[in-house]
Amino acid sequence: MKLLVSFQFCLALGILAWVLPVAISANGAQIVLGTEPIEQTAKHGSAKKFLKRVNKRLDVLSAETSEAAWAYETNITDHNSDLATEAQLKMNKALMKIIADSSGYKGKSKSEKRQLHLIKLLGGMPDSKDDQKELADLQAEMTKIYSTAKYLGAPLDPNLTDTLATSRDYDVLLSTYIGWRNVTGPFIKPLYEKFVTLSNQGAHDNGYDDAGALWRAGYDMSSEDFTELIEKVWNQVLPLYEQLHCYVRAKLAEKYGKDRVELEDGFMPAHLLGNMWSQDWSHIYDLLIPYTDVLPIDVTPELVKQGYDAYSMHRLSESFYKSLGYDPLPQTFWTKSMLTRPADREVVCHASAWDFGNDDLRIKMCTTVTQEDLLTIHHEQGHLYYDHHYRKQPALYRDAAADFFHEAIGDTMELSVVVPQHLKEIGLIKGDIKDSPEQTINAQLAVALTKIAVLPWVYLVDQWRWKVFSGEVKPEDYQTAWIKLVEKYQGLKRPYPSTPDDFDPGAKFHIPANVPYIRYFGAALIQFQFHAALCKTAGHEGPLHTCSIYGNKKAGKQFAKMLSLGRSKTWQEALRTASRGEFDTLDGGPILEYFTPLREWLEKQNEGRTCGWKKD
Ligand SMILES: [Zn+2]
């Protein structure tokens, strides 16, 4: 089933992407950084001069590192792997030295102080060389366990993922769901305990209370205020999630039986939602579709019929951005990108956007002619247009205002692209659009199954990790604390009781790989704030979900002002700029407004049902 909006968890590859404590080569060998002593540096001279040197150095290093990584990902060989690892080690060493040197400076101006703060955020490694090595070893080992794990001989991708998405057999889903957790978590848990201790040591050595506090320090507000903000916004959107949960539980009960689905205290089982972590429910759309005689819009057949290929699909997306008054993509984009899967070599196909500095911007993607990929292209180009707009900033500012901004740019555009009137305007829908309420509900439910269903998940992952890093959750409580959060936020029950060895967090890539996750919560919400603000500027009248900013240069200009800032201002200031003062913090209002038709429809469907679940 093709859905209207894809929700890709991709990474934009800029400077910060290379701040990883360890590099793993293709053959699994792992190399540890930081084995050379940091030179003693004279701690005098002005911060201004120091920062100038740092920015210049980062320009060179990040270009080198990106080139080496690009060479590897577009041609997987041991040789390219070694070169990429070498470049990354060089980068990591240089960063550690820069961080150490920066402690001698205070900075005079606001901008100098901000840049010195951003340098500090690049840190997190313990002072001790032995600790550094052990931390890197642990992360490599955990990632290796995760990425080589198999259940009954089958790896997660594509096999187990496909089973969860396509099987409608309760027992098969149950054994696959539990099986994946059995072959990952218990092996990762003992390593993770030690990893937490050493990560916290690194945070301490860099002046932070714990590793979670270091992560939250990147949001231009106190750690406590940030935590409070996220909880507040979650409570804003919770009623909508509860309605969706209630409807889905009833539909699944029709399919699998009430006794198996409508569990005590309002929960439903976690393994029936079409995804290993129940974070994306779009794969069970066929069980949930409100009006079966109204098909959801899918422009794939029209793309094929009109002879689109990878190149012309990327051109089509570019024309959307150009319609906002933006520059064409640089010429080198078309000569240096990898837009299709090459026949002669192995590559990493997962779509990603790359910034090499000096407006050298590329996409790596094995494009297929489908609606899903067309939307992914808009998402990836969103990264590139952000990169392009802030290209004149110094290296430390050539980044998103906050990590969640980068993921939200292209997604904001997608909200305009999927409007049927827009698809007709660009010739991908022929004939009249039957703009019926049934069509609207079918389309909104499809979007909600990714964009609403994901919200509790992207919140709970880092809430658990923050509690673990702070020591509030002790190792013996890792699993029970996790289960409690899944129940409290997602309203889902593990379908089989845990044993003392279980460690379900280890069954999700971002835990063993130690990739922060809360950015996806911010991105999921702020794209609707951007959309609402730009639609207002564009003079849109009518419901928010019918707005497309295509062709509106005034809205484009307003957004460009924010894009050009990069990370030179706080994210709150950047948001204020993008919304002409309407917003200066995360707000669940616009996402609720967007889904008004669906919410009203769900409330009607759920009349007479007891919605919600036990939350303490
Ligand atoms: Zn992305």
UniProtKB/TrEMBL annotation:
EC nos: 3.4.-.-
Cofactor(s) this protein requires: Zn(2+)
Active site (record annotation): 380, 510
Glycosylation sites: 75
GO cellular component, one term: membrane
Family membership noted in the UniProt record: Belongs to the peptidase M2 family.
Protein name, as recorded: Angiotensin-converting enzyme
Provenance organism: Spizellomyces punctatus (strain DAOM BR117)
